[in-house]
Structure formats: structure tokens, C-alpha cells
Amino acid sequence: MLPRAATKVMLPLLLLAVAVIGFGYLRSSKPSQPQPRPSERSWVVETMEAQPARLAPSLTLYGEVEAPTLLQSAAPGAGIVSEVHVREGQQVRKDELLLLIDPRDFEPAVLQARADVLDLEAQTAEMELRSESDRRALAEERRMLELARNAVERATKLQQQNLGSDSTLEQAQQALGKQQLALTTRQLAVDSYTAKLNQLAARLARNRARLAQAELALQRSRVVAAFDGVISEVNVAAGNRVQAAQVLLSLYPRDDLEVRARLPGRYQNEIQAALSRGETLRAVATSQAARLPLVLRRLAGRADPSGIDAFFGIDAPTHPLLPGNLVELVLSRPAQERVIAVPLQTVYGNNRVFLLRDGRMHGVTVEAVGHLTSADGSEALLIRNDAIERGSQIIVTHLPNALDGLKVQLAELPAS
Predict the structure, then answer these.
(1) Residue 177 belongs to a domain with what CATH number?
(2) What is the pLDDT of residue 8?
(3) Is the pLDDT of residue 2 over 60?
(4) From CA 78, how far away is CA 261, in angstroms rounded?
(5) 117-130 in b/e burial notation, b at 16+ Cβ within 10 A?
(6) Residue 342: C-alpha distances to residues 54, 200, 304 (Å)
(7) Residue 415's pLDDT is what?
(8) What's 84's domain CATH number?
């Protein structure tokens, strides 16, 4: 027998050996498990079918309503306003009396100018009569001069024959000299008739012009509407003294308002070329929940680095717009060929979209042509790439980890 001390040492070692052998047997007899393989994740996306078409990009602008034919009535001269018949915002009809300046401030000028015209007309008539009389008198003066010459000749002959005195000859010579002077004076009067008549005609024309001006000022003291319109401003009241050219009131036609909007410079050549081709470019304005059709009439004659002003006519018989209203408008730019409208989230970096091919993403570089605004206010982006064929599946779901070759699958459509 083993000593008692050896038994105490060997027994634990034996038990440990049996445990190790048992653990090894259990491990070796355990059923084998298949090695797990990593699987590739597939992302769920939605797609749309590419349908290239001819579409017009839209451009959002902001403008102000203006009255290009605003009429400002001014006082024709100094006077007192006696009557005011309108108020701001009032609609008036053509030839309706709007305001009256006291006519007594203008009538004296008319009477004075008319009197001056009558005076010069009388002077002209008198000048014509005097000229006719001078012409007749000139003929008589010439006959009298011939008689005076004959008298001198007779007195000279008598003196040479010692039949006449020296005093008689001297008297005849003095009479001839006086007659020559009278003829010269009369001839001058006849010759100066045309110049004097022209002077009178010039003075008469000036006074007739002054009369017409005075009569026009009197007529304009009655301020009437030049057209059907709306009173935008009244600057005076009854009893006010006004000066010449002072603005009394303003009037604009309701059917001739425009919207002035700032067009960015990068679109100027495109829009100008379309107008030169005779194209009609339309827009829709939104103001106080009202949508109004507009049509682009023209571009301004001057631009600056920031852009150019565009003028839109309101293509509606009735509308709520007034000068000074601010409006948001969407302009339809010239149509583009073979463009595709896609949701905004479809495009990555403004120039890249992904197509679905064989269950994977395939990136394509595109040209962003512009935005397209629908009637309900929703926006889409117009892109173009001739390599995208009709019917191609464009991925519209925006993935933060989008890249070429990424595995994707179509989202299941809900049962109808």
C-alpha cells in the first residue's frame, strides 16, 4: 500500500487528469457549425422613368407694379384753386372735370393780348393805306419835278435873251431843289413800306402767340381727365394759391400698368434673343393669394453688372394690383429640347444623377438647365444628358452614401 501522504497527492492529480480528458472528449465530439459569411447590404430606393421632352425652365423674380403713363397735371400759371372735385383713389372718366383754378387769374392776360393783336392789325391796315397813298403821291411828285425843271429852263433862256431877271431864275432853281427833296422823301417812304410792314407782321405774330398762350392757360385752368383712370395723388385743396408748373394732381390709366422686375445678367442674352425672334414669354404673378398672367413686353435700354430690368404687362382685364405693389412672379424662359424634369433631391452636387442598372447605382454627369415650377407651386429640376435614353430608371431617393456600384433594390409599391 501507498503511504497515506502519497495518496493525498496523487488523488487530486488523478481527478484533474480525468477532467482534462473528459473536456477534450466533449470538445471533439461537439457537432460542427458552418462558418458565417458576411452578406452585402441592399438599399431600398424609388425610381422614375426618364422621359426627355421639350420643356420651358422657369425663373422666379420679384417686381414692383408701376404706372408708365402716369399723368401729372400742373398749374398753367399763378392763381387760386377754386374747386377740387376728386380724391385719391377715385376712378374718373375721360373729360371729367377734376379741378378748377379761378379763371379771373387768367382772363385779364387774354383781354390784354387780344387788344394788342387788334391794335397791331389796325396799324397794319393803316400802313397799307398809307403806302397806297404814297405810291400815288410819288407819281405826282415826279410830275411836279418835271414842271420845276421846265421852269428853270425857261428862266435860263429868258435871262440869256436879257428878257428875265436873275431873281426869277433863282426862284425857279429853288423850287426845283425843293421838289427834288420832296420826291426823295416820298420815294424813301414808298421803299421803306415793306420793311415797316414786316416789322408790324413780326409784332403781330408775337402778340398772337401771346394771345394763344393766354387762351391756353385759361383753358387749362379747367383740369379735366385726359383718359379713363384712377387718381393717384391730389396735392392741393380749394383756396390754395399755386404757382406756374406746380403739380396739382396725378392720374394713371388702370389698364396700362406694368411690373418691373430685375432679371439676373446671366439670362439677359437668352431672353433678348427670344424677344428678337418674336417669341412670347409669359409669367405668372402672385400677389395677396391672387395669380395673374403676365407677358414680357421688353427689356430696359440699360443694364449693369447685376442684371437688367424687365417690364411685364398684366394680361388680365381686371386685377387688384396698384402702383407700388410688390409681387413674386415666375417667368417661363425659352423652351429647351430633350430635358428631363426630376425632383430636386435626385441631383447630387448640381450635376450628377444615378441610374438603376442590374440592381446597382450607375452615376451619370448631367447639365442642370433650370427649374420647372408647376401650377401647384412644386418645383423640379430640369437636367439634360443625351446619354440618358428614354425609359431609363433614374433613382430619385437621395442616399447619403451614394456611389457607383452601390447595391439597391426597388421599394415595393403599396397594394392598390
Answers:
(1) 1.10.287.1700
(2) 65
(3) no
(4) 40
(5) beebeebbeebeee
(6) 14, 84, 34
(7) 44
(8) 2.40.50.100
Which stretch of DSSP H or E encloses residue 274? helix 268-276
| Per-residue pLDDT at 416 | 42
CATH code of 315's domain:
2.40.30.170
Residue 382's CATH number: 2.40.420
If you average pLDDT over every residue of the chain, what do you get? 86
What the block records as the C-alpha cell of 148 is: 420845276
Enumerate residues 6+ apart whose C-beta is below 8 A from 96.
Answer: 85, 224, 225
Length of the chain: 416
What average pLDDT does the segment 157-173 reach? 68
DSSP string for 59-128: EEEEEEEE-TT-EEEE-SSSEEEEEE---TT-EE-TT-EEEEE-GGGTHHHHHHHHHHHHHHHHHHHHHH
- Rounded to an integer, the average pLDDT of 336-354 is 93
Q: Which three cell numbers stand for residue 10?
A: 496523487
214 plus 121 within the same structural domain? yes
Is 154 a member of any domain?
yes
Which residue matches cell numbers 402672385? 286
Statement to judge: residues 131 and 199 lie in one domain: yes
Residue with cell 488523478: 14
Q: What letter represents residue 241's amino acid? A: R
- Number of domains forming the structure of the chain: 4
